Amino acid sequence: MPEHRFGEVRWLASVDSTNRYLLDEARAGAAEGLVVVADHQQAGRGRLGRSWEAPPGVNLLVSVLLRPTVPLGSRHLLSAVVALAAADACRVVAGIDPGVKWPNDLLAPDGRKLAGVLAEADAAGGSEGPAPVVVGIGINVGWPGTDDDLPAELVGRATSLSQWTADPVDRTLLLDRLLDALDPRVTALDSAAGRAAQADELRRRCVTIGSEVRVELAAESFCGVATGVTEEGHLSVHTSGGSRTVVAGDVVHLRPVAPGYPLSVDSGPAGASD
Ligand code: BTN
Predict the structure, then answer these.
(1) Under CATH, to which class is 9-205 assigned?
(2) How do the domains of the chain map onto residue ranges?
(3) Phi, psi of 50 (to 5 degrees)
(4) Cys-Cys with 26: which of 3, 127, 132, 207 at CB 3.0–4.6 Å?
(5) Where are the beta strands (DSSP E) in 94-161?
(6) Atom 16 (ligand 1): residue with closest C-alpha?
(7) What separation in Å is there between the alpha carbon of 47 and the centre of ligand 1?
(8) Mean per-residue pLDDT for 14-30?
(9) Alpha helices (H) in the chain, listed in sequence order
(10) What integer is the mean pLDDT of 127-146?
(11) Ligand 1 centroid to 263 CA: how many Å?
């Protein structure tokens, strides 16, 4: 048995969505640390109302239940630490070092997407103590095997660990390493110093910083240069109208900025506006 909060892992053959399953368990009073994995999701959820699809038995589809004490403004760090822990696991198990595309995608070295993270909160809570947050991640382990497996719109945009490794990647081992790496990261979020350390690591791993980006928000989109990540894990973007901080939204990488552009990877909340 692992010596951390993620001791109970329910591995289901099939479920609509592991996030939905855990949100229901949370409402029924489940404790922090419950983990659910599915071989197949019939209605996997992606960010911004999208779906998340994968054939049965090949990818890692997992959600964890947290009951965080993190200040509301720093909630983004909850999904960030899951992305960072998944990157740790990919390094150890598959020998590849993914970058983090803000907000939480893991990208292979060629920029194609390897994994996505979706955090969902339930303000109602369902029990005493901190309100639950469910963080789910889908890691492309064995699928797509080649571009031929992908729908046209994902060709050139999605990849899997199997495309980067000589040997097949064991999903159980990947999950174990992910949970081992996640536990101390979640603990770190309880203190300001720990949150600062996780934000620092996010900055180091964030391949969005230094890229010209298009930011897509619900009501508008704008372009600029991603210059840093704040202490809360939000994205700082330099635009023609000044600096803006993006709390939630979609980011499209347009191109890297030219050498010499004044990037501040240590950028914190100071100087960020909007
Ligand atoms: C994204 O859009 O990039 C986020 C995808 C998140 C998918 C995972 S798979 C496990 C968990 N359960 C879900 O329904 N979604 C997340």
Answers:
(1) alpha beta
(2) 9-205, 212-253
(3) -80, 170
(4) 132
(5) 99-101, 105-107, 113-121, 133-139
(6) 136
(7) 7
(8) 97
(9) 18-27, 76-89, 171-188, 192-205
(10) 90
(11) 31
Ligand 1 site, residue 157, Cβ cutoff 6 A: no
Taking the C-alpha atoms of residue 251 and residue 205, their distance in angstroms, rounded to an integer, is 16
pLDDT digit string, tens, across residues 179-238: 999 999 999 999 999 999 999 999 999 999 999 999 999 999 999 999 999 999 999 999
C-alpha 56 – ligand 1 centre gap (Å) = 15
Any atom of ligand 1 within 6 Å of the Cβ of 137 = yes
Fold classification of 212-253 (topology level):
SH3 type barrels. (2.30.30)
pLDDT at 259: 76
**Distance of CA 106 from the midpoint of ligand 1 (Å):** 12
Residue type, 135: V
CB atoms under 10 Å from CB of 62, counted, come to: 27
- Can you give the length of the chain in residues? 274
> Which residue shows structure tokens 């070295």?
109
Check pocket membership of 40 for ligand 1, CB cut-off 6 A: no
pTM, to two decimals: 0.94
Residue-wise pLDDT for 98-126, tens only, equals 999 999 999 999 999 999 999 999 866 55
Q: How confident is the model at residue 261 (pLDDT cuts 50, 70, 90)?
A: confident
21 Cβ below 6 A of ligand 1: no
Ligand 1 centre distance from Cα of residue 51 (Å) = 8
